[in-house]
Every structure is written in structure tokens, then in C-alpha cells.
């Protein structure tokens, strides 16, 4: 069964929905309750994230950056990164290549 278009709980206070995956690109929306964290991790994929609403603190290789509605941040391959939602927030994440690990 495909996970595309289905919301799933990712971590406490965090849910995600894979919107589309085709060719070498994947698009996913991630919604956060205030104070929720996307735990630190890394992957070989390039990632760009656009804040759809709210404010999110990104930690990328130890450097903190706050991204607000309309802001975009780039995460290079294999960079250790995590986030904390400073208020209810949502991100539009784009990955290349496709995150096959999330489609399973």
C-alpha cells in the first residue's frame, strides 16, 4: 500500500504526509504542535524546507536558525539536523533523491 496522501504520526506532536514522489524528487508536508521536536538525524538526501506557517528552529550541524512563515532553508546531504516548533507550525519538505525509507 502506498503512503502517498496518508497522514502518519512521526514523533510526539509531529505528523507528516507524503504529497508526491516522482523521478528524483519527493514532497512532504510536516505539521508540528507547539514545542514538538523533529529529532536529530541525518540522511544522504538533499533537502529544502519551506515554512508554511509558524516558527521553527532548525539545528543543522550544530548551528541554530529560526525560519518563519515563507522562509526556506537548505539541508545538505548527511548533515545532522533536527527542529523544534516554537509555535504551531508546518513545513513543506522537498527531497532529492526520493526518500524510499519513508515510502515503505
UniProtKB/TrEMBL annotation:
Gene3D superfamilies xrefs: Jelly Rolls
For this protein, the record's Pfam families field holds: Cupin_2
Q: Which InterPro entries match?
A: Bacilysin_H2HPP_isomerase (IPR052535), Cupin_2 (IPR013096), KdgF (IPR025499), RmlC-like_jellyroll (IPR014710), RmlC_Cupin_sf (IPR011051)
Protein name (database record): Cupin domain-containing protein
> What domain of life?
Bacteria
Domain Cupin type-2 residues, every copy: 29-95
